[in-house]
């Protein structure tokens, strides 16, 4: 199966400044292309039934995982364990582009 990302519309997410293109949505997991606009942040939250990950494609978003804060660069990957509080912050002047995936626990 081929996915032509340019043919998928950007959708406004639950949080202002975060746009998504859904690439995969299965019962046990998902994968989205996420664009975080400058100066926006996805607030601390947790997932009771899944582990999430973020792979940075462009920009330098900041990730908060539990009590730790991480700066990032393209090519960095972060894991958000199930039930662990996490947030994504774009404190830069440009867009940040990430692949965000989730795997539900069995």
TrEMBL record:
It comes from the Bacteria. Keywords: Metal-binding. CDD domains: cupin_RmlC-like. GO terms for molecular function: metal ion binding. Residues 35-99 form the Cupin type-2 domain. This is Cupin domain-containing protein. It comes from Haoranjiania flava. The lineage of its organism: Bacteria, Pseudomonadati, Bacteroidota, Chitinophagia, Chitinophagales.
């Amino acid at each position: 199966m081929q996915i032509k990302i340019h043919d998928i519309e950007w959708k406004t997410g639950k949080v202002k400044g975060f746009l998504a293109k859904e690439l995969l949505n299965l019962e046990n997991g998902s994968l989205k292309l996420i664009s975080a606009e400058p100066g926006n942040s996805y607030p601390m939250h947790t997932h009771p039934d899944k582990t999430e990950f973020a792979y940075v494609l462009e920009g330098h978003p900041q990730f908060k995982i539990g009590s730790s804060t991480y700066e990032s660069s393209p090519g960095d990957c972060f894991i958000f364990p199930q039930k662990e509080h996490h947030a994504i912050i774009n404190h830069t002047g440009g867009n940040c582009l990430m692949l965000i995936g989730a795997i539900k626990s069995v």
